User: Fold this.
Amino acid sequence: MDEAEFMRGRVYGADHDDPGPRAGRVYAQLVGGPLDGLLLDVTDLSERECARGVVLATEIGRYGPGGRSAYGRRPDDRRRFDWRGDMP
Assistant:
């Protein structure tokens, strides 16, 4: 995926009216699972938090409304977070 295509993606948690990335922010792509293809704003996450991974609320995962999906940063590509599984 080239930079222009990457920056056209939808951002996790953004309003549907304004789904695109914002200048000056840092994003990682979510890969796999129910949030596949969305961008995650990691601007305010520390290196330690990024390395630990994230758990994101989603209504379209295995556990439906109220469920969450876990994503971990890909070791060889800091701009990608791979799906680790869903949880209630």
